[in-house]
Design a protein that fits this description.
Elements lengths: L6 E4 L5 E4 L17 E4 L12 H9 L4 E8 L5 E3 L11 H4 L13 H5 L19 H10 L3 E6 L8 H11 L5 H6 L1 E5 L2 H10 L4 E5 L7 H4 L5 E3 L7 H8 L12 E2 L5 H10 L3 E4 L2 H8 L2
Parallel strand pairs: 3-4, 3-11, 4-6, 6-7, 7-8, 8-9, 10-11
Antiparallel strand pairs: 1-2, 4-5
């Protein structure tokens, strides 16, 4: 997830609403509560290659229930778990396919991607780790009895990916009543993507990634249960404004903030009253605030 200076939302009527960045204020932080969820960002990605099954397992070994991932689509229509829209940073794609620059995910088939090493950049012990398909990822999270915060990554590049994700979630049992209610949150920086998911499956808990202006929060509350901003853009007042509204399921809006990797920042945002903290090093956050 990357910080955004503003959030754009297209209304049903076609008008565009621009969410203005809300800067932190000097308001006194609220007391930290002891129910702050700690989410392993791309798995325990400080310790294992991000978005791989090894990162899921590392989060499990550290005792973390919630993991976060990113979902994209290959040229031949497979759903894969990867953050960047290019394969260059976290795989050996430049060596395997030197003439395929800029190595966009959407330009490669699932078979081609399966040949890539997605682990050795993190350490020799992870050599040979692969980019998992969404199906493989869901199976591993399920095996570990974990929960999933899924990001629909850059859906504007993949028309119709929302329906495809829902199909895969359904096939793997994640839309069964118990799972969809207690184990799954789907989020995106793209408000229209979240609106689409909510319209297709109103029972899914959804989150908008960004920091909309306080005045625009009621618009997002119609289809998002969470407002999930960068920790650099929030304050106690902002979190309080989020909590003051009810989302589409009739419960107060929640706020999960990202990406917090040190104890000082973790204590600060917990003091703001956030409901969840997303971290590459979730053990550091847990030691600082509990959860």
């Amino acid at each position: 997830m990357y910080a955004r200076a503003a959030a754009a939302l297209t209304s049903a009527a076609g008008s565009v609403v621009i969410g203005v960045l809300v800067l932190p204020t000097t308001a006194q932080a609220a007391p930290a509560h002891n129910r702050t969820a700690v989410v392993a960002h791309r798995g325990a990605s400080a310790y294992a290659p991000e978005n791989t099954l090894a990162a899921v397992d590392k989060a499990h070994a550290l005792g973390f229930t919630w993991v976060e991932n990113d979902v994209q689509r290959t040229r031949d229509g497979a759903l894969v778990v990867l953050h960047d829209t290019t394969l260059a940073r976290t795989t050996n794609v430049e060596q395997v396919y030197p003439d395929r620059s800029p190595w966009n995910v959407a330009d490669f088939t699932s078979g081609e991607i399966a040949k890539l090493d997605a682990g050795s950049w993190k350490g020799a012990e992870y050599t040979g780790a692969r980019i998992p398909t969404l199906h493989e990822y869901l199976r591993r999270v399920d095996r570990n009895h974990q929960k999933l915060l899924m990001e629909v990554k850059s859906p504007e590049l993949y028309p119709g990916i929302e329906d495809q994700i829902l199909h895969q979630l359904r096939r793997d049992g994640w839309l069964d009543a118990g799972d969809v209610k207690h184990r799954l949150i789907v989020q995106s920086f793209n408000a229209e993507s979240i609106r689409t998911l909510h319209s297709r499956r109103p029972d899914i808990k959804t989150g908008y990634l960004g920091t909309p202006a306080v005045s625009e929060l009621p618009t997002y509350a119609k289809f998002a249960d969470q407002i999930n901003p960068s920790h650099t853009t929030i304050s106690a007042d902002y979190v309080k404004a989020v909590h003051a509204l009810k989302g589409p399921h009739g419960k107060p809006l929640e706020s999960y903030t990202w990406t917090v990797n040190d104890a000082k920042t973790a204590r600060q945002v917990a003091g703001f009253g956030v409901d969840g903290i997303i971290s590459n090093a979730p053990d550091v956050v847990r030691a600082a605030v509990g959860g």
